[in-house]
Amino acid sequence: MCGLCGQLRFDSQVVSDDSLKKMMKKMVHRGPDSNGFWIDGHIGLGHQRLAIIDLSNHAYQPMIDKNLGLVLVFNGTIYNYQALRKYLIKQDYRFFSHSDTEVIIKSYHYWGEDCVIHLDGMFAFCVWDKVQNQLFVARDRMGIKPFYFNLTDKAFSFASNVQALVTQEVDKSINSVALQQQLSLHGVVPAPNTIINGVNKIKPATTLTISAKGKVVEKTYWHPKSIRLKEACTNDQSIQRTHELLRDSVLKRMNATDVPIGVLLSGGLDSSLLVALIREIGYNNVRTFSIGFEDINGENGSEFEYSDQIVTRFKTQHKKYMVSNSQVLTRLGEAVTNMSEPMVAQDAVAFYLLSEQVSKHIKVVLSGQGADEVFAGYFWYERMKAQTGSDIERFTKHYVDRPYEEYLQTVDLKYHSGNHTETWLNHEFTKENTDTFMDKVFRTDVTRLVVDDPVKRVDNMTMAWSLEARMPFMDYKLVEYALSMSPSLKMFNKGKYPLKQIARGLLPNSVIDRKKSYFPMPALKYIQGEFLDFMSDILTSSKCINRGIFSQIFIAKVINKPHNYMTPLNGSRLWHLALLEFWLQINIDE
Fold first, then answer.
1. Cα–Cα distances in Å, from 563 out to 183, 344, 540, 571?
2. pLDDT, position 530
3. Which residues of the chain fall below pLDDT 50?
């Protein structure tokens, strides 16, 4: 788990070490254990390392294989690297390290661009091929690892976060397409766009090949289907297969490390089930970590009641942390500074503060992100299914944060460039290989929306403290199988039925059957007091007014009655606006 950056120039200029160092400085938190850069005229690569596999200096990056004429920078973990290493040794490859990094180099040399098909893991990497005189870039199937880039006729520049990339000469103006999606899909801006015109990101399951002259070829190497399998399974067989795949997912994530692993334990079904499966596959002395906040308006700010039950049952080595609302506000700016893109979810700050504490004890954790999307755990799925109308109408009514008409009232006239969210959804929903409307919803959620909401959020907030998060529910083999399951099976009994059945006998029924909850951060939902003052100051500041994104008339309405402006997913529209402006002030203006 690391931070990477680099530049391939197409003009007559050479890459400067100062340019790479500026980007690397913005990624130190992603990899504080070591760093390095490599420059060869028009190509330069930089890297910040968090040592997880092969802690020796043989695994330092940029990794150079002189015999093969390849140089690599890599962020992530390849879970099947040991099996690939054995196979490649049989093909007469010799290894100088025991790292998964070197396995990627050899895999690329052996399979070429098809190497990504053989890699099972979370990854973003870049290989400079001296023989072909080209750059090969790849992102994992689920988009767990970030990869941002800027492409002009002069250069292709890239980095693991936007903050690093904007140290270069990029267009920092607001992307009109992204703005409408940002304010419609609760912070999700699907690749390739970002909120900044000069910064793009690679789509999940996608590769780019960039020649020394600037020709770019994009390929998508994974196209998951959301249709029933030809050989029908009984419900019991489907649940059993899910259990096997989830257990395998946990096992390979536990095995691919040379450092201890813990679990972020919320007290919900997902993270609790991970603890149970870790014990089931034979691991003892599990370390768990929980966080809680103050209650507001009768909404609980912690789930300790449930996480404590898991700790007692499995006798984990547990630490829990209680955070006051005053701490949330004073630390909010730090969390926003570490967001590669504006993230409105209430639990972003929670993950940031929890990761700070966890990183004092451990380097790698398992997290339950993705379970709700993969196994239909959210309340809005049932509402969408029951809704009448077109596919887009059924989805929009219960998911999109604000009607398009309200968006037009919210932003300045220059950003009235079309309903880009609806256009994007139409594109996603008309892709081949789905059986029903709910199949379209689940595939879009799992392969696109989840990438830029919970997955990105967890990666950013944990890596802010040099902590690697692994997400077993986002295993691509498990996702493929879940997409093939009947939506009615996943949605039965208020959702996540297969996981609930797997958990019977492993977890207390009180944890399995509890009402669905969300990582609590009430202060960013029920905006009042000093939080309301804070957001009001941001949105009425001279910077915000001069930037000219929002209509100040509409801003005044929302500030005056914030509780009247809640989203279908129970989020605060005031917070959405304030967060975007706050992020721009911290990460783009300064």
1. 17, 16, 19, 10
2. 87
3. none
Distance CA 384, CA 380 (A): 6
CB atoms within 10 A of CB 138: 26
For the chain, the C-alpha Rg in angstroms (whole number) is: 23
Task: Check if the beta carbon of residue 198 is closer than 8 Å to that of residue 171.
Answer: yes
| CA–CA separation, 377 and 499 (whole Å) | 10
Catalytic residue among 2, 5, 126, 544: 2
Write the burial class of residue 118 (CB in 10 Å: 0-12 exposed, 13-18 middle, 19+ buried). Answer: middle
- Are the C-beta atoms of residues 101 and 79 closer than 8 Å to each other? no
Is residue 579 within 8 A of residue 549, CB to CB? The reply is: no
- The mean pLDDT of the chain is 94
Strand partners, 404: none
- Residue 569 has a pLDDT of 84
Q: What is the pTM of this model?
A: 0.95
User: So what's the pLDDT on residue 12?
Assistant: 86
CA dihedral (182, 184, 185, 189) positive or negative = negative
The first and second tokens of residue 332, run together, are: 């909010």
Residues with Cβ within 8 Å of 63's Cβ and at least 6 positions away in sequence, in order, are 71, 72, 73, 74, 97, 99, 101, 102, 105
Contact criterion met (CB below 8 Å) for 3 and 47: yes
CA count, 13 A, side-chain hemisphere, 108 = 29
Distance, CA of 382 to CA of 441 (rounded, Å): 11
Is 2 one of the catalytic residues? yes
HSE value, Cβ hemisphere, 13 Å, CA-based, for 476:
24
In this prediction, residue 567 carries a pLDDT of: 87
